[in-house]
Task: structure prediction
Amino acid sequence: GFNVLVGDQGNNKTLDGWIEKSGGNFDVIIDDGGHHNCQIMASFVKLWPTLKPGGLYFIEDMQVGKWRGFRRYSTSVCDASTFTFSDTVREWLDDV
Result:
């Protein structure tokens, strides 16, 4: 079945609640949330480990992370003024 989860994807309590409510163990995750870099990273850190081996993780509209208007949402571990999720993914891929 499908689990559509709504809430602040940059809030760890919200993310933990989603995982608990849905049971995790996802075949597919589609992040079509707030599109802010720190929100995407917070979701990825929490949800990636809940993805089944061979599962698919999609992130919508990553390009907007470079736009100034989408560099405002910070968390306690992510500074939106300096962090860009797409650059981090590129660094991860460069390390492969």
Q: What stands out?
A: The chain has a mean pLDDT of 91.
